[in-house]
Amino acid sequence: MTPTPHLLNYSFYPGCSLHASAREYEVSTRSLFRALRIGLREVPDWFCCGATPAHNVDELLSLSLCAKNLELADKVEGDLAVACASCFSRLKTAQHRLKVFPAKARRVEQALDATLSVDKPVKHLLDILARDFGLDRLAAAVQKPLAGLKVACYYGCLLTRPPEVPDLDDCENPTIMEDLLRAVGAEPVEWSHRMECCGANFTLSRPEVVRKLSGQILGAAQAAGADCLMVACPLCHGNLDIRQEEIAKYAGLPSGTPIFYITQLVGLAVGVSSLRLGLGNMMIDPKPLLKGKGLI
Amino acid sequence: MRLSQATMNLGFVRKVEELSGSSVRRCFQCGKCSAGCPMRSFMEHPPNRIVRLLQLGQFERVLSGRSIWYCASCETCSTRCPNKVDLAAIMDALRKCAWDAKGPSKESNVQLANKLFLDNIRTYGRQYEMRLAAGFNVQSGQFLKDLMLGPKLMAKGKLKMFHDKNENLPEIEKIFRRIAAMRKNGEAL
């Protein structure tokens, strides 16, 4: 039997978190893409993009790590699909800065001892789902509309900022997550903290920062009547899910608000088995909510 | 603050502009950056004042404070600046200058986290969060930090115990070495 041909094909840069703390993001991405017949081929032996710590203290290192990963990705067919908002931002930032500053590009060539090959289009999963695959096709693929599920879409920082880099949506008022959710029948809520910072990698060095910022985000989502939040970044997820009990206690809020990845909610709607969405990897158990809404 | 040729280091402004690729001098102090900064309450100098101090050549005050290490790189300031001052890139440049000077700032935890993160890339090619957290707790002397989270993360399959073999490790090592050599020869910024 020949396998069903793919409708679209991408090379794939999962990023470090997807192999550990964000396991459910990787599991649900692969399940969802298989269900939608979108091919993903992982870039062999990709390595860390350097994330915030590299650009924080050494731009040349940050640009060089990203440029080398883009060179590796060039050998795999298809635009580069990226799941993590931070990897996405670093790779796109490197492409942008290497183009705008030729002197920096020359130094990176020297650091890599090679001519640059960094032009492969880099796309976040949101872009692939909402634009390449398309909202119409997605709506047609829905088997179990997420009716009655009130979701706070949380973009965080790096999917849209700064405006000249990610090229994903408006930098102050994006709608791509809400559009995606409406296509699968859920109800995005209107709320205040869609674009605020969660405290990011201060989770390691200064967790009090995360308690304050993520506490405000959780409180705003709950006040808007959201049943759950949806994110597209492992760091935002870590702060809001793994640290939720702690931040809720600190902010005087109830905990127990599930934090989903985009791929988990869309996967559920297009009929992927709940066993293949990594729901068991989440610290805040989403099953009571999903059972209550008749979704599992 | 007394301003004179002797107390203003204007060469430093040019270095920060070269590193960041952004103008420092174009800022006219509208304060939009600080109004939107989520980390402002943790900083002794809010972002607009950092730029003003730079314009006045007061780099020592900027580098020795903790403000630059409390920037979350959220890019809100760069997004909203009406004069296209890329403050997030300027913060990167300032941290690099402080880092190269072996960190005159008192903010050591953020610098330690950065160092361990970069060491992990060089050693394993990828991040392993448990090693990062364990290394941080030992080296910062906070042995009990997040102790209760470990077993819960383990139970949820969120900690990876063993690292993957990465064929590109020798190539990564070469990149680190070439950059170190370039820096020694004055060829890197």
What's this entry about, in short?
The complex is a heterodimer of chains A (296) and B (189). Chain A is α/β, with parallel strands linked by helices and 296 residues long. Chain A folds into two domains: 116 residues, Up-down Bundle (Glutathione S-transferase Yfyf (Class Pi), Chain A, domain 2), CATH 1.20.1050.140; 158 residues, Rossmann fold (3-Layer(aba) Sandwich).
User: What portion of residues of chain A is helical?
Assistant: 40-55%
Following the backbone from N to C, one meets helices and strands of chain B in this order, namely HHHHHHHHHH
State the CATH class of the largest domain in chain A: Alpha Beta
Helix content of chain B: 40-55%
Corresponding CATH architecture of the largest domain in chain A: 3-Layer(aba) Sandwich
Mean pLDDT score of chain A: 97
**Count of β-strands of chain A:** 8
- What about the largest sheet of chain B? none
What string, H for helix and E for strand, traces the elements of chain A in order?
A: EHEHHEHHEHEHEHHEHHEHH
Could you walk me through the main structural features you see in this protein, from its secondary elements to its overall organization?
The complex is a heterodimer of chains A (296) and B (189). Chain A is α/β, with parallel strands linked by helices. Chain A folds into 2 domains: 8-123, Glutathione S-transferase Yfyf (Class Pi), Chain A, domain 2, CATH 1.20.1050; 135-292, Rossmann fold, CATH 3.40.50.11810. Chain A has 13 helices and 8 strands. In chain A, the strands form 2 sheets. Chain A has a 4-stranded parallel beta sheet with strand order 2-1-3-4. In chain A, helix 1 links the parallel strand 1 and strand 2 (38-42). In chain A, helix 3 crosses helix 4 (85-100) and helix 9 packs across helix 11 (244-251). Chain B has helices at 10-20, 32-36, 47-55, 59-64, 76-80, 87-100, 108-124, 129-140, 149-155, 169-184. The longest helix of chain B has 17 residues, at 108-124. With 189 residues, chain B is mainly α. Chain B folds into 2 domains: 10-100, Alpha-helical ferredoxin (Fumarate Reductase Iron-sulfur Protein, Chain B, domain 2, Orthogonal Bundle); 108-184, no CATH class. Helices cover 54% and strands 0% of the residues of chain B. The model of chain B has no long low-confidence stretch (mean pLDDT 92). The two termini of chain B are 30 Å apart. Classes of the chains: A alpha/beta (296), B mainly alpha (189). At the A-B interface, helix 2, helix 3, helix 5, helix 8 and helix 9 of A face helix 5, helix 6, helix 7, helix 8 and helix 9 of B.
